[in-house]
Automatic annotation (TrEMBL):
Domain of life of the organism encoding this protein: Bacteria
Residue span, Bacteriophage phiJL001 Gp84 C-terminal domain: 183-258
Protein name as catalogued: Phage BR0599 family protein
InterPro entries assigned to the protein according to its UniProt record, in alphabetical order: Phage_phiJL001_Gp84 (IPR011928), Phage_phiJL001_Gp84_C (IPR018964)
Length: 267
């Protein structure tokens, strides 16, 4: 029995995913490659929307995706290692048998990934980044600026170093840099090895040893290389003594907080 075009599904979902470092891919739910405008979408992703929640209030709007991972562009190890954390996700719909631009459905940021068996589910936060930020500046004892941003104004080009792992035990590393004491609370970005592209937080340092905040998804081997960025604990003394940047300090350590209400007279 023959079927007409009107009996078939003609709507396709199109995904455009981009990591913070610029790496990304575009894919479609159609069974063959599709051209949408100037963009070519590969037909190698088996993810479909399972739940779309749109709310009037500020929080709660999100998109749930479910399916299997069949694309070489989005591997399970990359998801669980954090390579795609913070990625922007765009969902569009198009008519596969007609030329024309795709209709945007929603934009969001990859929030959470859950893997059970061979199935994967992803949660996309649809709250715009501008709404996530506090509407006004709040006071805090520690500095609110991020080291190297436009508020801090420290030039980070001279405060990073390349290093090579000599020995590794889970998240404890011995590197070929003799003194990395200024890199506690900083960031480490892998540029070789199985964790290449993954960024981790540095918990503490001592001499040529450093402790990462968590154990990476893939084992670290001797010879793996990374770029370490200096860190800051946000204290006024650190800002003044280590960075000489007290004029740009964005904290109020001398401002009494709510704990002053708990004090007794004479305390």
């Amino acid at each position: 029995m023959s079927q007409s075009l009107s009996d078939l599904t003609i709507a396709t979902y199109n995904w455009i995913v981009q990591r913070p470092d610029g790496v990304g891919f575009a894919t479609t739910s159609q069974d063959q490659r599709q051209q949408v405008g100037s963009m070519s979408l590969e037909a190698d992703m088996d993810l479909k929307p399972s739940n779309l929640i749109l709310r009037d209030r500020m929080y709660g709007s999100r998109l749930e995706l479910g399916g299997g991972l069949s694309s070489p562009a989005l591997r399970l190890g990359d998801l669980t290692s954090g390579r795609w954390n913070g990625s922007t996700v765009r969902l569009l719909a198009s008519d596969w048998h007609r030329d024309g631009d795709a209709i945007p459905i929603c934009n969001g940021e990859l929030d959470k990934v859950v893997v059970e068996g061979g199935e994967v589910s992803m949660s996309i936060d649809l709250l715009p980044p501008a709404i996530r930020r506090p509407p006004c500046i709040q006071t805090s004892p520690e500095c609110r600026a991020v080291l190297g941003d436009r508020h801090c104004r420290i030039d980070m080009r001279t405060r990073r170093t390349r290093l090579c792992v000599i020995k590794a035990n889970a998240n404890e590393l011995t590197v070929d840099v003799s003194d990395i004491d200024g890199y506690a609370m900083g960031r480490l970005r892998w540029i070789s090895g199985a964790n290449c592209g993954v960024e981790q937080s540095i918990l503490s340092t001592e001499g040529n040893k450093l402790l990462l905040h968590d154990v990476p998804e893939f084992p670290i081997k001797a010879g793996d290389r990374a770029i370490a960025h200096q860190g800051c604990d946000g204290r006024r003394t650190t800002c003044a003594e280590r960075f000489g940047n007290i004029l740009n300090f964005r904290g109020e350590p001398d401002l009494p907080g709510s704990e002053i209400l708990m004090r007794f007279p004479g305390a």
